[in-house]
Design a protein that fits this description.
263 residues, 9 helices, NAD(P)H_dehydrogenase_qn, NAD(P)H dehydrogenase, oxidoreductase, Flavodoxin_fold
C-alpha cells in the first residue's frame, strides 16, 4: 500500500499519538510506503478564504467556482497543493482523530474543506448520461480509506442501542458524504473506546487490533454503500420505494447492514 496517514490530535504523547506511531511501525514492517499529515504539528490552517484561490478579496467569493478555477490553473495555495499531491500519490487514506462532540476536530474538517476542491475531488460528469459521477464514482475512485477514532465512551454506548448513537451513523457525513461521495471505498472504522481510562493491558489490546486491521486493510470488504448511478436512485436522487423498506436515514443507503462495531 501507499498510505497517506491523516492525523488530528494536538498531543503526540496521547493515546492517539502512540497508536499512530504503532501504525506507522506496522506499515514499515510489512513493506508499505507512507506519508503523514500531522495537522496540529503542521499548524494546518483549517479556514477557507479567498487567498486559497488567489482570488481578489474585493470580489464576491463563490467557493465552488473559485476553487475549481484555481485548481485548473495551478493557482491553489501551496499548502493545499501539497496535500493534494500526497493524496494523489496514495492508494489508501487513514483518517485518525479523537471523537469530539460526535465528530472530528475542526482542524480535520478544515483539511477536507480546503483540500477536497471541485476539479480535484469531485466534479466529473458522465458524458453519456450527463449525471454527476459521485457516491461511488468520481475522481478518487480506486482509493480506499479507513477511519481510526478514539472515544472516551464505552464501545457499547456507540452501538445501535447505545445512548451515543451508532458509530457508523456518527461517521456517516465523513464516510459516506465525503469519502464515498468522491469515489473512495471505505472499510469499517476502527474504534478504540475508553480512551480516558486506558491501562497498559487495554493499550496492548488496542495496538494488536490496529496491527491486525492494517494487515488486512487491502482485502477488507468496504462498507456496502449504494452507488448513486447503478439504478438504486431515481432522477431526483431519491431511493426507489421498493429499496427503502423499513429503513430511513443513513441505514437506507447501504445495500446490506454494516458490520457491528467491536470493542
Amino acid at each position: 500500500m501507499k498510505v497517506l496517514w491523516l492525523f488530528a490530535h494536538p498531543d503526540r504523547r496521547s493515546l492517539s499519538g502512540a497508536l499512530k506511531t504503532e501504525g506507522l511501525r506496522t506499515l514499515d514492517a510489512h513493506g508499505h510506503q507512507y506519508r503523514v499529515s500531522d495537522l496540529y504539528a503542521m499548524k494546518w490552517n483549517p479556514v477557507v478564504d479567498a487567498a486559497d484561490y488567489d482570488h481578489d478579496p474585493s470580489d464576491r467569493l463563490l467557493v465552488g467556482p473559485a476553487s475549481e478555477h484555481a485548481y485548473a490553473h495551478g493557482r491553489l495555495s501551496p499548502d493545499i497543493d501539497a496535500e493534494q499531491q500526497k493524496l494523489t500519490w496514495a492508494d489508501t487514506l487513514i483518517v485518525q482523530f479523537p471523537l469530539w462532540w460526535y465528530g472530528m476536530p475542526a482542524i480535520l474538517k478544515g483539511w477536507f474543506d480546503r483540500v477536497f476542491v471541485k476539479g480535484f475531488a469531485f466534479g466529473l460528469t458522465d458524458p453519456a448520461t450527463g449525471r454527476p459521477q459521485r457516491y461511488g464514482d468520481g475522481r478518487l475512485t480506486g482509493k480506499r480509506a479507513m477511519v481510526i477514532t478514539t472515544a472516551g465512551a464505552r464501545a457499547t454506548t456507540l452501538g445501535p442501542r447505545g445512548v451515543n448513537g451508532d458509530l457508523n451513523d456518527l461517521l456517516f457525513p465523513l464516510q459516506h458524504g465525503t469519502l464515498w461521495y468522491t469515489g473512495i471505498s471505505v472499510v469499517p472504522p476502527l474504534l478504540i473506546p475508553g480512551a480516558d481510562r486506558t491501562t497498559p493491558t487495554a493499550y496492548a489490546t488496542a495496538a494488536t487490533r490496529l496491527r491486525e486491521r492494517l494487515h488486512t486493510l487491502p482485502t477488507t470488504d468496504p462498507l456496502p454503500f449504494r452507488h448513486q448511478n447503478n439504478g438504486d436512485y431515481d432522477n431526483d436522487l431519491l431511493l426507489h420505494p421498493h429499496l427503502t423498506g423499513p429503513h430511513t436515514g443513513p441505514a437506507a443507503h447501504y445495500t446490506a447492514p454494516p458490520p457491528p462495531i467491536h470493542d
